Amino acid sequence: MSVLLRRLFLLLAALTLGSACAVSGARAAAGPWVDNDQGRLRLVAAADAIGETGEPKLGLQIELKDGWKTYWRSPGDAGFPVSVDWSGSGNLASTRFEWPVPHRFTLFGLDTFGYEKEVVFPIAAKAADPGRPLALTAKVDYLVCAEICVPQSATLTLDLPPGAARPAREAFLIDRFEARVPEQGSGHSGLTLERTGVGGTATKPTLVAQVRSAVPLLAPDLLVETGSDLRFGAPAVKLAADKRSATLTLPVTFGPQGERPVAGTPATLTLVDGNRGLEQATTLQPLAAAPEGPAGERAAGFGGLAAILGLALLGGLILNLMPCVLPVLSIKLLSAIGHGGRETGAVRLSFLASAAGILASFLLLAGAAIAVKAAGLAVGWGIQFQQPLFLAAMALLVVLFALNLFGLFEIPLPGWLGGVATIGHGPGGTGGHSLAGNFLTGAFATLLATPCSAPFLGTAVGFALSRGAPEILAVFTALGLGLALPYLLVAAAPGLATRLPRPGRWMITLRRLLGLALVGTAAWLLSVLAVQLGWLPTAGVALLLGAVALLIALRRRLPRPAAALGGAALVALLLVVAAWPQPTPGGRAGASHEAGWQPLDVAAIPALVAEGKVVFVDVTADWCITCQVNKALVLDDPQVQAALGGKGIVRLRGDWTRPDPAIAGYLAGFGRYGIPFNAVYGPAAPNGKPLPELLTVEQVLSALAAAGPSGHLAARD
């Protein structure tokens, strides 16, 4: 049994990790590395060509060896910032260099601001003539420091041809660091500077700032640029109990110009918390009265990571009720019904094995997310369904489950794979409950649940994927515990299952009916595969699945060598999918044009809002069942259709069925890493107001009304 369990887990690991880490067919768009003793650097692009607009998105990527750092635009008490000279470039009209949030380094009482390990500076470029190649030559001067400082200079090159632009492998890398550029009022960071002022005394002034965050704060810092000799030290931070608000007090010291009033000094404030940042220009004003502690400081309750883990636990529990889990309802029902009259000890072990399968799958997903994020690729909830090989493998597993429920096989075919597929199948289809089978029940339910989102799940996953490996592991473990709670409940009270009717002939009929539900699930998976690869290769996969089913059904009537054809069909199925040309990353042509929808163009939204229009954004995918439920029950509702079709309403739809770095970057800007995602923009909501994962007609109608011009006037009043 232990050998079977180990092979089962390795199969699931290969399917999930392999599909999640699969790199799409995107081409690379990067110049050669320039190496030195402290690290290396190069130019990268988000697309493999200039594009019709002639405005490619670029990045300056710097990788530093351990212990070395380079500097921000305002380096602090020492150092100098990165500078780039583009004068050697051809067909380049202009560039705009952006600075991701830096980190504070303190050494011997000196504060500097910069980056370590890796940084990508996003660059917005514009070609003088979009019809000609863009020949980039960048002379980069920068300083790297450890115990000593070493000035460096490098000449980087990158050539981009004219023509239609396709997303490159480096697109998500650029988007990831672009999301770290401090926002200037868009609201995407979730940070707010509620109040700032100069306090203290004339000889020992301080700058006091009250800040608030939509998610728990980690290590808030405030960077102050004044262009004068005033020095603002590291803040003393007083966090509220819920860690969503804080008071920062920065000591101010005078330079060679001597003491003078600090109030009235123009300043640029950059609020930083981890990889989030908010930039705000202001004139420092006196603090009329010392601020009290943050409003939430006296509030009771759990804060920080504990609150997120609570949301993850609740989100995982609610996920049991989401439509994505309905296809495996047959397995869940049999897992409960088949225990009627059994001993409580056996029932407890069975449900604990199912819970272990759920937790193991979530840990596997967490490991895949950590690996994908470390590789600089797009990471999100359910993105393995963007990979054709994963879809084909899942369709195969679903078919094997269905055949088992139909009673077509009880013995391995081949040995270990048949054992994997056999769940609760005993003589007459009524009995045996192997621990390996129950383990796979939980693992399989987890993998099919990932195309769904649920209340609280998006918040928890977004928090985890924007943090590091420990947070990802903790949040995904809590999600797994939430999804496993029904199994753990039965394990704690086995009588809930043993009091059910004993299995009998009635259960054979039930198994066949529930097997039909799994056949429907396989058909749905093939329909998503058809979107990825087209109907011709999908028809080939369907025929091979049919051949596998036929060989299993007729195996006793066929000569022994013919049984090997089943394994050959399985290999052929995977080879067809793996060898078929992969689709170009991005949404499908025409997928967004149904019923007045336009393709999502994030860059066009500010202009539409400036014209007084309301913009409704829907990011969806064919594999996202929650998206389809939202569409059928809410977006296609006559009231919502009438509102969306009204004057001054623009509908934009992003299709994430296939990998699309642009959509991944857009979601990351809102701290989201999964779908469904909907947002409303308008004069009263220029930065976009995201809606809950599960929509209601009332929510959509009220959001559209609140974002419009009348909502803007009401907000002003």
From TrEMBL:
Pfam family name, one: DsbD_N
PROSITE patterns in the record: PROKAR_LIPOPROTEIN
Subcellular location: Membrane
Main location: membrane
InterPro entries documented for this protein: Cyt_c_assmbl_TM_dom, DsbD_gamma, DsbDN, Thioredoxin-like_sf
Domain Thiol:disulfide interchange protein DsbD N-terminal: 52-158
Membrane topology, as annotated: Multi-pass membrane protein
PANTHER family (UniProt xref): SUPPRESSION OF COPPER SENSITIVITY PROTEIN, THIOL:DISULFIDE INTERCHANGE PROTEIN DSBD
GO BP terms, alphabetized: cell redox homeostasis; cytochrome complex assembly
Segment forming the signal sequence: 1-22
Domain of life the protein comes from: Bacteria
The protein's name in its UniProt record: Suppressor for copper-sensitivity B
A cellular component term, taken from the record's GO annotations: membrane
Listed GO MF terms: protein-disulfide reductase activity
Membrane-crossing segments per the record: 302-329, 350-383, 389-409, 443-466, 472-497, 509-529, 535-554, 561-580
Entry keyword set: Cytochrome c-type biogenesis, Membrane, Signal, Transmembrane, Transmembrane helix
Domain Cytochrome C biogenesis protein transmembrane: from-to ranges: 307-527
